[in-house]
Amino acid sequence: MSNIHTMSVNAIRVLSADAIQKANSGHPGLPLGCASAAYELWANHMNHNPADPDWANRDRFILSGGHGSMLLYSLLHLFGYGNLSKEDLMNFRQHGSKTPGHPEYGHTIGVEATTGPLGAGMGMAVGMAIAEKHLSSVFNKENYPVVDHYTYVLGGDGCMMEGISSEVFSLAGTLGLGKLIVLYDSNKISIEGSTDIAFTEDVQKRMEAFHFQTITVEDGNDLEAIGRAIEEAKSDTEHPSFITIKTQIGYGCPAKQGKASAHGEPLGADNVTALKENLGWPSMEPFFVPEEVYRNYRKIAEEKAETEAAWNVMFAAYCQEYPDMEELWNAYHDPDAGEKAIEKCEDFWKRSEKADATRNLSGQVLNRLKTYMPNLIGGSADLAPSNKTNMTDMGDFSREDSSGRNLHFGVRELGMTAIGNGMMLHGGLRTYVATFFVFSDYTKPMARLSALMGVPLTYIFTHDSIGVGEDGPTHEPIEQLAMLRAMPNFHVFRPCDETETEAAWYSALTSKKTPTALVLTRQNLTPMPGSSKEALKGGYVIDDCEGTPEIILMASGSEVELAVKAKTLLTGNKVRVVSMPCMDLFEEQTEEYKESVLPKAVRRRVAVEALSDFGWGKYVGLDGTYVTMTGFGASGPANLLFEHFGFAAERIAEAALSI
C-alpha cells in the first residue's frame, strides 16, 4: 500500500474516532475495521460522482450496519459530497446536524437508505439490484447500456444473524442478481462478546446454498486483495456475490482492537491518541487531515466525474437515436406519473352496482392502470391469487426474464417490504407489496422505514377483519389497524366499496412522501349510494340527516354498510353516518372541514369497526361508545362471526340509544 493510500485509509479511521469521541457516543469498531475495504471500493471500483449524487447510473452503496455511520460520513466528507464539512463531522449525533447517529435517507446527501435495524440495508440493496435489472431490460439497447450499475452493501455479523438477510438473499440467488455485491465485515465480535456464543454457522456455505458466488479476503487491510475480490465479483454476471472480508473490530487502537468494547462506545481520549500514534498520524489535533490526503480524494472525485460525463454523452446519443425511449425514460422518472396515469385512464372512477370484495375491486383498478403506468411493478408474499395483485399479461420477473412486472417474493413478508423500499429508493419505479393484513406484523419494521424515509411504497393488505371467517383467529387481524394508524407519516386506507377503493389507489399513487396501506376485504360489500371522491379527505359524510345531527355513527370498510342500516332503525333521531376510510388523511384536513363532518357539539357518537377500538377515542369522545372487537376472533363463516361478535345494525342502534 502506497503512503498516500495508507494515509487516505487512516483519515477515515481518525475522523471517525475523533467524531465519536467528541460526541461521547457512537460505534468506532466498524469504521476502524472496514476503512480499508470502504476506501478501496469507493476509490477504485465504484462509479459515483460526488458533484452529482443523484446521477441515475451511479453504483449504489448501502451501509447495512448503520451503527457504523461515521465510516459513511467520513467517506462523504473526504470525497466532497454535498459540502459535508468538518464542522458537520464535529456535530456527529447532535440535534439538527447532518450527521445523525444512523444514516438517514433524504437528510444527508449521499446516503442511499436509512439503516438502523440490522439487516434492513441488505434487503433494500436486493431491491435496488432488482430495480437495476428490470430497468436495464426496459431501456438498454445495443451499444447503449444506459442502466448498467452495481449495488454494494456492507454489513456484519449482526446483519447476517437477522432473519431478514436470509429472506432476501435466498430470493437474490434465485433471481440471479449478478450486480449485487455483498461485503461481509467478518470480525467475529458482537456487543456481548465473541460471536461464538450465539453464531457458529458457516456463513459462506449458507450463501453458497443461496446460489451466491463466495469469495474470501483473509486480510481486511490488504487493498490489493480486496480489489481483486471486487473485480472477481463483478466478473460473475450470473450470480450475486458475497465477499467475506476478515477484519479486526477497532483496528489500530492497541487497547481496543479485536475486543467487544470497540463496538459501541467511544475509544476514550487516551485511546484516540494511542490510535493516532499507532497509525503514524502526523498530528494529535482533533479532526486533522493532511492536505495531500484531501488532494488525493479530490483527484479521485474528478476521475469519477469523468465517468458520469462519458455516460451523459452516451445518453444524449441514445435519446437522439431513440426519442421514444427518451420519452419513456422521462415518464418512468416523473414524480407525477401516478396522477398522469389516472388522468389518462378514463374508466378509473368506474362504478358498478354489483356487490364485490374490495380486494377484487383493487385488483381491477390495478389492471386498469397497468397500461397507463408502465413503471408500476410489484407483487405478493406468495398470495397474489388471494391478494388480487397480479397484473395480467405483464409477465413475471425472473432470472430468465427481468422485464416482467409481477414479482414473486415467496413467503417472505419482512424481506419483501425491505425489497420494495429498495426498489423505490433506486428510482424510476413505483412499487407495491402485498400480503394478508394479519401478517402486516411481519412487515412492520420495514413499513416504519418507509414512513421514516418518506418512501411512498404501496401496501396491499387483504382479509382485513374477522370477515376472514373459517381461517380462524390466527388469520383474523384485530390490533393491526391501530398499529399502522399509530405510525407517523403512514396512510391507512380501509375502503367501504368500489369508489373508496379507487380513492385509496388514487391517494397511494399520487403520494410523494407518504406510504399507503390499502386494507381490503375478502367478503363482498354492497356499493354505498353516498360514497364519493370525498373519501380522498379521509373522512366524510356518506349518509346525512336534515339539520344538525343528534347522533353520529362512524365506521370504515365493511362496517359502513352496517352503520347506514342502523340509521334506518333510529327513527325519530337525527343521525349522520360518517365513513372514515383513512384517519390519517382526515387529520390532514382543515379544522373547518373536520368540524363540518364531526361537529364538536354532537357528543352522541358510535365508532363501528370489526377490529380494535384503539385510536377511535379522539373521535368518539368521553360520551360516545364503541361497537368493536375486544378480543380475538374465531373460526366460522364470516356472516356468523359478524353476528356472534355483535356486528349488526340492531346492536349499533342499541349502542347509539344507550348514550
Automatic annotation (TrEMBL):
<comment type="subunit">
    <text>Homodimer.</text>
</comment>
<dbReference type="InterPro" id="IPR005475">
    <property type="entry name" value="Transketolase-like_Pyr-bd"/>
</dbReference>
<dbReference type="InterPro" id="IPR033247">
    <property type="entry name" value="Transketolase_fam"/>
</dbReference>
<dbReference type="GO" id="GO:0005829">
    <property type="term" value="C:cytosol"/>
</dbReference>
<dbReference type="InterPro" id="IPR009014">
    <property type="entry name" value="Transketo_C/PFOR_II"/>
</dbReference>
<feature type="site" description="Important for catalytic activity">
    <location>
        <position position="27"/>
    </location>
</feature>
<feature type="binding site">
    <location>
        <position position="439"/>
    </location>
    <ligand>
        <name>thiamine diphosphate</name>
    </ligand>
</feature>
<dbReference type="InterPro" id="IPR029061">
    <property type="entry name" value="THDP-binding"/>
</dbReference>
<dbReference type="GO" id="GO:0006098">
    <property type="term" value="P:pentose-phosphate shunt"/>
</dbReference>
<feature type="binding site">
    <location>
        <position position="158"/>
    </location>
    <ligand>
        <name>thiamine diphosphate</name>
    </ligand>
</feature>
<feature type="domain" description="Transketolase-like pyrimidine-binding">
    <location>
        <begin position="356"/>
        <end position="528"/>
    </location>
</feature>
<feature type="binding site">
    <location>
        <position position="187"/>
    </location>
    <ligand>
        <name>thiamine diphosphate</name>
    </ligand>
</feature>
<keyword id="KW-0106">Calcium</keyword>
<feature type="binding site">
    <location>
        <position position="475"/>
    </location>
    <ligand>
        <name>substrate</name>
    </ligand>
</feature>
<dbReference type="InterPro" id="IPR005478">
    <property type="entry name" value="Transketolase_bac-like"/>
</dbReference>
<feature type="binding site">
    <location>
        <position position="187"/>
    </location>
    <ligand>
        <name>Mg(2+)</name>
    </ligand>
</feature>
<dbReference type="InterPro" id="IPR005474">
    <property type="entry name" value="Transketolase_N"/>
</dbReference>
<feature type="binding site">
    <location>
        <position position="471"/>
    </location>
    <ligand>
        <name>substrate</name>
    </ligand>
</feature>
<dbReference type="InterPro" id="IPR049557">
    <property type="entry name" value="Transketolase_CS"/>
</dbReference>
<feature type="binding site">
    <location>
        <position position="359"/>
    </location>
    <ligand>
        <name>substrate</name>
    </ligand>
</feature>
<feature type="binding site">
    <location>
        <position position="27"/>
    </location>
    <ligand>
        <name>substrate</name>
    </ligand>
</feature>
<comment type="function">
    <text>Catalyzes the transfer of a two-carbon ketol group from a ketose donor to an aldose acceptor, via a covalent intermediate with the cofactor thiamine pyrophosphate.</text>
</comment>
<feature type="binding site">
    <location>
        <position position="463"/>
    </location>
    <ligand>
        <name>substrate</name>
    </ligand>
</feature>
<feature type="binding site">
    <location>
        <position position="157"/>
    </location>
    <ligand>
        <name>Mg(2+)</name>
    </ligand>
</feature>
<dbReference type="Pfam" id="PF22613">
    <property type="entry name" value="Transketolase_C_1"/>
</dbReference>
<feature type="binding site">
    <location>
        <position position="263"/>
    </location>
    <ligand>
        <name>substrate</name>
    </ligand>
</feature>
<feature type="site" description="Important for catalytic activity">
    <location>
        <position position="263"/>
    </location>
</feature>
<keyword id="KW-0786">Thiamine pyrophosphate</keyword>
<feature type="binding site">
    <location>
        <position position="67"/>
    </location>
    <ligand>
        <name>thiamine diphosphate</name>
    </ligand>
</feature>
<keyword id="KW-0808">Transferase</keyword>
<feature type="active site" description="Proton donor">
    <location>
        <position position="413"/>
    </location>
</feature>
<dbReference type="InterPro" id="IPR020826">
    <property type="entry name" value="Transketolase_BS"/>
</dbReference>
<keyword id="KW-0460">Magnesium</keyword>
<dbReference type="InterPro" id="IPR055152">
    <property type="entry name" value="Transketolase-like_C_2"/>
</dbReference>
<feature type="binding site">
    <location>
        <position position="386"/>
    </location>
    <ligand>
        <name>substrate</name>
    </ligand>
</feature>
<protein>
    <recommendedName>
        <fullName>Transketolase</fullName>
        <ecNumber>2.2.1.1</ecNumber>
    </recommendedName>
</protein>
<feature type="binding site">
    <location>
        <position position="189"/>
    </location>
    <ligand>
        <name>Mg(2+)</name>
    </ligand>
</feature>
<dbReference type="GO" id="GO:0004802">
    <property type="term" value="F:transketolase activity"/>
</dbReference>
<dbReference type="Pfam" id="PF00456">
    <property type="entry name" value="Transketolase_N"/>
</dbReference>
<keyword id="KW-0479">Metal-binding</keyword>
<feature type="binding site">
    <location>
        <begin position="116"/>
        <end position="118"/>
    </location>
    <ligand>
        <name>thiamine diphosphate</name>
    </ligand>
</feature>
<dbReference type="GO" id="GO:0046872">
    <property type="term" value="F:metal ion binding"/>
</dbReference>
